[in-house]
Amino acid sequence: MDVRLTDKAVKDRVLRIWLRRVPEAGGFLQAWHIDANENERQIGSATLYGRGVGSTAQERAMLLFRLPSDTDDLKLSVGDRVQIRIEEGSGFKELNLDVSEIE
Asked: Whole-model pTM above 0.85?
């Protein structure tokens, strides 16, 4: 799932992704910064707690990724592309979630 960094995320060094509903399955998530040359760098992580199979829970959820401070080799800017992936086996795979808002 690709998202773009907002002004608030860059200023606060926190990326908040609001989900319309907690998904059934959870997992360990990683946020990857992808630059214009398609170079990737892991910049944050979060744990997603699923609601469980068959649950009718309707609560919204927020994923919170703390972003690193700028360095000589990484400067985060508004509009930068970030890809959210979920841990699967020995690696990570792309993930699609029902997003309502990105801060």
From this structure: yes
